[in-house]
Amino acid sequence: MFGSTEDDDFGPVTVGSSKLASLFGSEARDSHVANQSLSYSAPKQPKPPAPPSNQTHLLLPTNITAYKISDGQYHSQGRLNTALVANIAKSDYRIIIYQGSDKQIAQAAVHEASQLSLSRSQYLSVLDSQNQYWSLLFDSTARAHAFLRQLAVLMHLQSGGQRLIKFDLSAGEGAELGAEDSAESPIRFRLGRAGGSSRSSAALPGFDRGLPGMRKGSSRLLVLPAGMAFGSAGNSANPTVPPNATVVCFVELLRVKQQQQQPPPPPPPVEKSQNMSGDDSSVISEKGETSEKAKLLSRMAKMG
């Protein structure tokens, strides 16, 4: 069915034995196999876990348009770069603003009290170590969200891995979701790069603390500690989430069911009772005494 050209293409490929020997070391391997049966190798002891590296890592370097904020005005600083700097061994995490490869312009420590906010989906506001406010404009919403996601993880690590971290990504509209309100369920979520999706009528425990304050149509980035996510059991529906895993998720609020305020109950009706209270009996007693005095005076007048 195939011509000679196709036969040549799919025909066997021959390689000289000298080339195989040079690539795989067949002679040395054969000699090693032969001697292996005559020698004893002690079992290797497991190596202790390596301590955290003391190296500083540069994460997510990206181009931005930077603005300094002073007196309520935005002053353009042109095209610059920003990145996250992380030293896990020292728990040192920072945002840096730099130009080129060797000129650092500003830096801001990343910690629980960091003053950071995202506006209009692409502007990240940062307070640097010199108390100077910056507004960093990313080239796209996707890059801004990726940077913010990594930033939230660093804040979570700096807190010891026990704090819930949240960032508002879009404002939404309508009334805020209160602690007594409920979001529409079931909740649909996607976990892991494998793309496994789950559907559940029960929300993660951390949503009770992470969702209040959102509005319809708003979105928020949440970093949930293991105790507020799937805990020690992990996620049986998705094996990509192991036990005691921190969960980073983007949440969009689609519908809110407001808790209706019930009107106060009406006062109970007055029950008629044959037994009168002490006040009522005293009034009747006083009326009775007055009537008896009137009758006595009338009789005295007739006798008089």
UniProtKB/TrEMBL annotation:
| Segments forming domain PPIase FKBP-type | 160-257
Show the catalytic activity.
[protein]-peptidylproline (omega=180) = [protein]-peptidylproline (omega=0)
The EC category is isomerase
Renumbered to this chain, region (Disordered) spans 34-56, 257-304
Is Ribonucleoprotein set as a keyword in this record? no
| Keywords recorded for this protein, A-Z | Isomerase, Rotamase
- E.C. numbers: 5.2.1.8
Output compositional bias ranges, type Polar residues: 272-284
Regions of biased composition (Basic and acidic residues) lie at 286-295
Organism superkingdom: Eukaryota
Tell me the protein's name: peptidylprolyl isomerase
Q: Which organism is it from?
A: Macrostomum lignano
Which lineage?
Eukaryota, Metazoa, Spiralia, Lophotrochozoa, Platyhelminthes
